[in-house]
Give the backbone structure.
Amino acid sequence: LPEPKLVTIVYGDDSGGANPGARAVPPSTADPTSEFLIESDPTGDAPSPIADSPLVNLKGGLATELVFTNVAFVFPTTGSGGPYVIEARDVYGNASEMRADQWLALSSSSGTGVFSATDGGPEITSVLMPLGSSTVSFYYRDTVPGTPELTASASSQTWGEAVQSQVVNPGPPAQLVLSPDGATLTAGEFL
């Protein structure tokens, strides 16, 4: 620069000021290799670097919502869906690591659905998203066909809940029942 200049960088400043092109734009995704190039262009001819670009490890902010990252599962009443993956995200949609252990309550709109930590495992009603993690997984099974809505919510938090509908199809036939009981049919006859 031709003379010493005081350059103030205000992260995310939208006020415009004397040089609206000088504002920093908040990142939309976390990126461990992001770099900031600090330049000044007082004459409008060509920007001049005024500092080496520091390497910055951008991490997601505080969690504001939970989302399912898996596609909805379709499975029979004799099977299960999963693994389901819940991710905590910040306001920009970045993965947000837990600052402390966080229990997530699991619920289904079906009264016959069962959650488990492993495929076919014992029933659970909540899962732990541990400190430093941004995801947690589980499985779901149901014995009644339908489209149950699964919900994961963070106890004592104001985060948006993760909600996803599943499709539970009837399983294969288990038996053939003739009705009325004791009916006798001759080949070619109908009831």
